[in-house]
């Protein structure tokens, strides 16, 4: 007696990959990378915030800019945003759905905050804006796990 195979039962075996998960491997790998980036960005933003809070003379203004804020205020913004982004990054690495949704919103806030941070650290702010755009893209295009 022979045992029935998957094809003789009328079903086809599922193969792992983008066709069964609904997402591209680039987006899935990008989500993991986005979680790591958010974790690292959060830690660096905390350190950046502490430097802004501790000493107003750590960062030099690079000319006149439309958005003028006190550096201590920016320090607190970066500190709080950094802690929340790092926690969301940990959640993304653990695969939680709420962290992916929160990650998109936090990455958007980080892009806006870094745009306003341009006069103090222009190169670092541009790098962070690019990282934020990548994080938004990867979290929005990965369909390996449903968002709802």
Commentary on this structure:
- The radius of gyration is 21 Å and the shape is elongated.
- With 148 residues, the protein is an all-alpha fold.
- It has helices at residues 18-21, 25-54, 71-94, 97-116, 122-141.
- Helix 2 packs antiparallel against helix 5, helix 3 (71-94) packs antiparallel against helix 4 and helix 4 runs antiparallel to helix 5 (122-141).
Structural class: mainly alpha
User: Could you tell me the mean pLDDT?
Assistant: 76
Main sheet attributes: strand count, strand direction, barrel closure: none
- The count of helical stretches stands at 5
- Per DSSP E runs of 2 or more residues, the count of β-strands stands at 0
* SSE string: HHHHH
Low-confidence stretches: 12-20
Tell me the radius of gyration.
21 Å
Share in β-strands: under 5%
How far apart the termini lie comes to 45 Å
> In one word, what is the shape?
elongated
Share of helix, binned: 55-70%
């Amino acid at each position: 007696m022979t045992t029935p195979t998957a094809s003789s039962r009328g079903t086809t075996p599922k193969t792992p990959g983008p066709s069964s998960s609904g997402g591209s491997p680039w987006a899935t790998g990008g989500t993991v990378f986005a979680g790591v980036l958010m974790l690292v960005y959060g830690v660096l933003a905390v350190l950046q915030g502490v430097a802004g809070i501790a000493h107003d003379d750590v960062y030099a203004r690079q000319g006149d800019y439309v958005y003028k804020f006190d550096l201590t205020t920016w320090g607190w913004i970066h500190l709080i945003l950094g802690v929340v982004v790092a926690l969301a990054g940990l959640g993304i690495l653990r695969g939680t759905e709420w962290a992916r949704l929160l990650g998109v919103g936090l990455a958007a806030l980080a892009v806006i905050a870094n745009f306003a941070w341009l006069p103090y650290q222009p190169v670092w702010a541009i790098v962070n804006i690019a990282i934020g755009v990548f994080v938004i893209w990867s979290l929005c295009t990965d369909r390996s796990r449903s968002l709802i």
